[in-house]
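debug: dumping io for the single-chain case to check the tokenizer round-trip. Nothing else runs in this session.
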Amino acid sequence: MTIQGKVWKYGNDVNTDVIFPGKYTYTITDRKEMAAHALEDLDPTFAKEVQAGDIVVAGSNFGCGSSREQAATCLKEAGVAAVIAASFARIFFRNAINEGLPLIECPEAIGAIEAGQTVEVDFEGGILRVGDKTYQFPGLPESVMGIVREGGLIPYVRKQLAQRKA
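debug: decoded output
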């Protein structure tokens, strides 16, 4: 699976409170409404201007902070196709995979990527293209790609169970 998308770039330590503001944690449950608040405290233009297929790029420790799963949900629901970062907080990493939001760790590429650029990602092949440069990252395993293709862990498991019954 290969995607191309426009880049939204941020720095290090983007935490779950700025990905999905903590003030909404217990008041918003609708996924579309969550998307309307994605990154609003970090970048007030993001939720209004992000397009389906866009890619978030950040430095190290993306998704640090709380275990708030809404952080991954709001990005996925806003149309973000992937997040590329130097590193991810582990709980955010798992929450994103559960949502079917692919994450790429490629610290070598972060400095070469600029906001507004288009990047191409080959998930299985582990190739990231930025302009005329190519970067390698560990390709995503088939188990993770299955979850991504199905739109998240729950749809993936439902499909697996249905296939077993058939």
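debug: round-trip ok. The first strand starts at residue 2 and ends at 9.
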